[in-house]
Design brief:
CATH topology: Pectate Lyase C-like
Pfam families: Pectinesterase
Radius of gyration: 21 Å
Number of domains: 1
CATH class: Mainly Beta
Shape: globular
Family: Belongs to the pectinesterase family.
Strand content: 25-35%
GO molecular function: pectinesterase activity
Protein name: pectinesterase
EC number: 3.1.1.11
Helix content: 10-25%
Length: 362
C-alpha cells in the first residue's frame, strides 16, 4: 500500500509539473498564404482573451500600460527616444509603450537588461526612421547596431531601423548592424531593417517577426536566435558573395534555429545563398517561401569545414518560384516531410503561446 501511494503521488507530481500543451502551440501555419492572417488571429489573441494562459508576469505587465509620446518637433513628452527609455526603471514590471511621431530619429539606442516590457512603435503607414552610422571599425561588430535590445519582452512595430554606413566594396569587410536583439520573447510587426553586411543580429532568445522587410548583402541575418519569420521579405543588394542567414548553432543540444515561413526572397543580380555554416550546427529552414531567380541554384554556401556537411540542418519545404528548384542543391540540403516541418510552423517553436500578443494599436 505504501508503495502504491508513493507511485500515485509521483504520478500526480509529474502530471501537474508537466507543461500544458495549448492548441496554439501545435496548430501549424497553413500552407495557403491567404489563411495566414486567420491563423494568426486565432492563435495570437488579445490580452482580454488570453488571461490565465499567459505568463503571469506578462499579464501583470500588459494591464494598464504607460504611454510615452516622442516628437522631435516638440509637443510630446520627449524629443528623443533615448530620453524616453531613460524613464524606464531598472526592474520594470509594467509595459511602457513609446510612441514615435513620424520623422527621422538619428540616435544610437539601447534598451538595457533591466528594462523589460518596452514597446517602441511608429504610426502605421507613416515613415518613422531610427538611423545611425555605427560600424564595426568604431564600435565592434555587435555593438555597431543602431538599435540594441538586451531586455526581455521587447516589441517593435511600424519602424524603419537603418544603419546608414556606406555599402562596403565587394570582397571587403564592412560589418554595420541595423539591429541587435539579445533579449528573450521579442516581437516585431511591420518593421524594416536596412543595412548591408550583418544587418540583423538575431542573437539570443525566442523571437517573432511578422510582415517585416530585411535588406542586406552578406550574412544579413545572423546569430543564435530561435526565431520565426512570417510573411517577411528578404531582399539582397550589392554584388559578389551574398548570404541571407548565418546561424550560430554549435551543437544538436541547442534549441534554436531560423524558420522562414511564407517569406519572399528578392534582390538584384543572382547568386545569393540561403545560408552558410558560420558554426558547425546551423539550423535554417524555408517553408512556403517564394524564391526569385536571385537565389543561387546550389542554394546553400559550401562549408569550408567539410565535416559540417554532416551537422548542418538546411531544410526547404514546398517553396516556389524560379529560385526554389532543388535539382542543383548541395547534397546536404535536408529533405523534410510534412511531419518534420510542422515543428517549425507552430508557436511552440518559439514558446509563443505564453508570451506573444498582437501589436498594440497606435
Amino acid at each position: 500500500m505504501i508503495g502504491y501511494i508513493s507511485l500515485y503521488t509521483i504520478a500526480l507530481l509529474v502530471l501537474f509539473a508537466s507543461p500544458v500543451v495549448q492548441a496554439d502551440d501545435v496548430t501549424p501555419i497553413p500552407a495557403d498564404k491567404a489563411q495566414v492572417e486567420a491563423w494568426f488571429k486565432a492563435n495570437v489573441g488579445p490580452l482580454s482573451a488570453r488571461k490565465g494562459t499567459l505568463d503571469p508576469a506578462i499579464e501583470a505587465a500588459e494591464t494598464d500600460p504607460r504611454i510615452v509620446n516622442v516628437n522631435p518637433a516638440g509637443g510630446g513628452d520627449f524629443k528623443t527616444i533615448n530620453e524616453a527609455i531613460k524613464t524606464v526603471p531598472t526592474g520594470n514590471t509594467k509595459r511602457v509603450i513609446i510612441k514615435l511621431a513620424p520623422g527621422v530619429y538619428r540616435e544610437k539606442v539601447t534598451v538595457l537588461h533591466g528594462q523589460p516590457f518596452v514597446t517602441i512603435m511608429g504610426k502605421p503607414g507613416a515613415e518613422t526612421n531610427i538611423t545611425y552610422d555605427g560600424t564595426a571599425a568604431k564600435y565592434g561588430t555587435v555593438e555597431s547596431a543602431t538599435l540594441i535590445v538586451w531586455a526581455t519582452n521587447f516589441v517593435a512595430a511600424n519602424l524603419n531601423i537603418i544603419n546608414t554606413s556606406p555599402m562596403p566594396k565587394p570582397g571587403t569587410q564592412g560589418q554595420a548592424l541595423a539591429h541587435r536583439i539579445n533579449g528573450d520573447k521579442a516581437a516585431y510587426y511591420n518593421c524594416r531593417f536596412h543595412g548591408f553586411q550583418d544587418t540583423l543580429c538575431d542573437d539570443r532568445g525566442n523571437h517573432f517577426f511578422k510582415n517585416c522587410f530585411i535588406e542586406g548583402t552578406y550574412d544579413f541575418i545572423f546569430g543564435r536566435g530561435a526565431s520565426l519569420y512570417l510573411n517577411t521579405q528578404l531582399h539582397a543588394v550589392g554584388e559578389g558573395l551574398r548570404v541571407i542567414a548565418a546561424h550560430h548553432r554549435q551543437s544538436d543540444k541547442e534549441q534554436n534555429g531560423y524558420a522562414f515561413v511564407h517569406c519572399k526572397i528578392t534582390g538584384l543580380g543572382s547568386g545569393i545563398y540561403l545560408g552558410r555554416s558560420w558554426m558547425s550546427h546551423p539550423k535554417v529552414i524555408y517553408a512556403y517561401t517564394e524564391m526569385s531567380s536571385v537565389v543561387n541554384p546550389s542554394g546553400w554556401a559550401d562549408n569550408k569545414d567539410r565535416a559540417h556537411d554532416k551537422t548542418v540542418f538546411y531544410g526547404e519545404y514546398e517553396c516556389r518560384g524560379p529560385g526554389s528548384n532543388k535539382e542543383k542543391r548541395v547534397d546536404h540540403t535536408k529533405e523534410i516531410d510534412k511531419k518534420e516541418v510542422n515543428q517549425f510552423l507552430t508557436l511552440g517553436y518559439i514558446k509563443g503561446s505564453s508570451w506573444l500578443l498582437p501589436p498594440p494599436a497606435f
